[in-house]
Amino acid sequence: MKRVFDWGLALLAAICLAIPILALVCAVRWTSPGPAIYWSDRVGRHNRIFKMPKFRSMRVDTPAVATHLLDNPTQWLTPMGSFLRKSSLDELPQLWSIFKGDMSFVGPRPALFNQDDLIALRTEKGIDALVPGLTGWAQVNGRDELPIPQKVAFEEEYLYKKSFLFDIKILWLTAMKVLTKKGVSH
Length: 186
Fold this sequence. Notes:
Elements: H1 2-16, H2 18-31, E1 37-43, E2 49-55, H3 81-87, H4 95-100, E3 104-106, E4 111-112, H5 116-125, E5 133-135, H6 137-140, H7 148-161, H8 164-180
């Protein structure tokens, strides 16, 4: 049922957001050199690597590490980067990953391929069995502000409490967080 819900909602969102998505593609291309979409190697279900698309918010010469590991993340942002990240619009291309089945609307956020500490802790707790999500229980409880062990604790709680109604609650809470930009640090 979750896969059918994800696919249907992704299709509806893609149709409703087609014009804004095209406008963002143009805006990213016009304001900085490089492609509009950045394909990031991410860790999916059972620690399988997949290519996850995002609107490019960082310069093309940015080191391939988690943003919080950069000395001065703002120096790497494109002119549109801060707006894309704070509004979470950089995540819209992930609808493609949801269509493909690499992602779900709700689940743990997919780790970067080189976030060894996060990947190891998730694997230890069995969280790697979940399909990663566009949003998740950890995101609505702290987003960028959570240290890895606390983030994994929320993801483990989701693993044991997951249900359709819990997913709807997380989607609702995510919408409220995005609208208020609460918990976004860059």
